[in-house]
Amino acid sequence: MTGLIDCNNFFVSCERVFRPELRDKPVIVLGNNDGCVVAMSNEAKALGITRGIPLFKIRDIVSRHNITTLSGNHRLYKDMSSRVMMTLASLADGLEISSIDEAYINLDAVDDDELPAYGQSIVKTIRKNVGIPVSLGMAPTRTLAKIAARFAKKYPGYKGACLINNSDKMTKALCLTGIGDVWGIGRRLSERLKAHGLNTALDFAQLPKEIIRDRYNINLERVWRELNGEACIGIEESIDGPQKSLTCSRTFATEVYTIDELNDAVAQYAAYVAERLRRHDCHCTAISVYIATNRFKESYYSNIAQHRIPEATNDTSILCKEAKSALATIFRPGYGYKRAGVTATQIIDGNGLQQSLFSDHDDLKKRKRLMSALDKINSEFTSHDKVHVASIPSKSIAMKEHTPRLYTSRMSDIIDIKCTDRSDNTKAGKEN
């Protein structure tokens, strides 16, 4: 038996922990440059707001219903996620974190009769310790646990924990789950399945095994087996291994027309990517640069260029130089650019790094010490860029987003609580 913990409306819930006045009110969280909606409360969903919709398209709805709009505060969300996972690790066995707001736990050691109460106690403890509401789905497979978690979130009668542990519950849950809501079945695939008359998860699960193997690929066969109670899907990527890519991208407040301004932005993004590579003791052998104009204008232009790096590196100056060189190949004058980004790819772990025989090893050691000193100094400051290489500007292109409060990691942002002495109030009341 496996369990899936899913934080409810996670970004919004993190904000509500420190701003309780937002509870039961429509709230949306915006992405880079406050351009699009990346998360919303149930109250905002009820008003027809969906993830990914640009803010300018719903400004009338926001104004009419007095919806609170917040800039994404991802440092806060990451910190709150770690607190949820630490609490969960103290309550359950076999914790496997799958995303910032989801994790799996092993429930094999818990008796079936005790699972509902055990699950509800986990939900209550996380809410009490961290302030984040969560839903727990418990089932024989991860795909069924996803479905159970959705029911736990949707129906208050489950008290935050839904258990699917027999064929009757499984049949009922699959019957009430649309084929597009099954983990591993995307929008296009769900349209294909619906064209074959498969509208619910139960329709798909009841297909004969021979048809599944003949008509669909191995991934869909695994989904089919999971829906029928056979565990065969784990976390797709190891949480301990290096990431396949690292990206830093931003949307500008106003359109940028000159290559000098784009060079400054790309250099800053490359420096951020380099710092993250060093943080995880990783190196990359390729870097890509992406630029795009406003996609809502007729003269839309976007392009991407990749540069191979002869020797794997995480050196800021080298990555900045390569990023600027890649930008020069795709920049087109006369356009107003609205977005740019830098991605490090072909990432390798530091333990597997092999240097060329012709490398200047003394120089590499010096540069490594320099980057280490750079990171150490910057780690002492909130902005993380107090010290930087000379090719990187100290001032970035303007963004529209507001500076969020870091309630849990910046001393100046910690909430002040003012208390009154109840004994003094009581004494004053008696005197009056």
From TrEMBL:
Ranges of residues in domain UmuC: 2-186
Organism per entry: Heminiphilus faecis
The name this protein goes by in its record: SOS mutagenesis and repair protein UmuC
InterPro entries listed in its UniProt record: DNA/RNA_pol_sf, DNA_pol_Y-fam_lit_finger_sf, DNA_pol_Y-fam_little_finger, DNA_polymerase-Y, Rev_trsase/Diguanyl_cyclase, UmuC
Gene3D superfamilies, per the entry: 3.30.70.270, 3.40.1170.60, 5' to 3' exonuclease, C-terminal subdomain, DNA polymerase, Y-family, little finger domain
Family recorded in the similarity comment: Belongs to the DNA polymerase type-Y family.
CDD domains to which the protein is assigned, alphabetical: PolY_Pol_V_umuC (cd01700)
UniProt superkingdom: Bacteria
Pfam name, any one: IMS_C
